[in-house]
Input
Amino acid sequence: MRKIALITGINGQDGSYLTELLLEKGYDVHGIDRRSSQFNRGRIEDTRQEAQKRGQVFELYYGDISDFSSICRIFSNCKPTEIYNFASQSHVAISFEEPAHTTDVNANGVLRLLEAMRYFAVEGCRFYQASTSELFGNAPETPQNENSPFHPRSPYGVAKLYAYWIVKNYREHYGIHACNGILYNHESPRRGENFVTRKITYSLARIKAGRQDVLKLGNIDAQRDWGFAKEYIEVMWKMLQNEQADDYVIATGETHTVREFIEKASAIAGFDIEWEGKGVEEKGRDKKSGNIIVEIDPKFYRPEEKTILCGDASKAKRVLGWKPKTTFGQLVEMMMKADLELIDSGK
Ligand code: G4F
Output
């Protein structure tokens, strides 16, 4: 049977990596992209042109998972055999500012996709849902695995929890092959610039080039389990190839602080950072130039994070044979070097 993938949120970090992987595997790829007033297909446009030159099917559609009719139209057009849902309001802090929109996309959007799948997708079509460590929020245990209790602590996390359960419900009730990938933070040079890792590398590269003075951050002692996005994409595909649909925690099992990320990245960028002051007054000074390059801005603080989000991915290792390879140090280096090159190139 011809493999036809439909990817929502195709122009994001994960969508673009998955597109490349599936094209390599010979899939026809169809993607849904939200229309915006600015061209926003930067991460996939080159791939699309190359795929078309090779005669491969790679189609993009304007659509939105908050619009049922657009989903139905696209489903009947491309008749997918696998659906990967990355469409989301993906920023935790912004979900406090746009809670209803976040819920409509991150919760109801998933329900709409599953309903459209029941009526319009081909028999045996499989579904992947981009679930998240934010389901655990203030869970009482660290590390978390598939059996850890959920305690989301943001409109983002609560909406994703609905999505998690509706996927599980459709699997149990209708027998749909649908999986939740409960992914911890996954980063790359393609990460959006308002997530902390990319904000750090992009800003440090700009400071280095004299195009920005200071990097302003919230809680730099926050800890995260950061992996390399491209490796996390492979396991999403593996989930859908496994005969038994299931839910999996995907993580490195290691946490690091934002501060450690800054220290490693700034060393690669050629700064020699030392910290002074405490709390909101804390600053990072480059010893070489004497300039302050990092400051704290309470605007970026989040509600207190009591639990350390650190994942135990042993089920994915056991069942799917997956484990992460890229270390934290390699990830920081890859991202920092990519942004130094980007800024240097003047793009
Ligand atoms: O990079 P972040 O914004 O990622 P966050 O909130 O952990 O969420 C990301 O990962 C989740 C798990 O995979 C996804 F579900 C979600 O969609 C998203 O991809 O923040 C990471 C940490 C937080 O503790 C935050 O408080 O960095 C801290 N932080 C400190 N200063 C900051 C900043 N985060 C941002 N975005 N900006 C800051 O200035």
In short: DSSP finds eleven helices and 15 strands in the chain. Residues 90, 92, 132-134, 183-185, 194-196, 199, 217-219, 222, 224, 258, 300, 302, 305 surround G4F (CB under 6 Å).
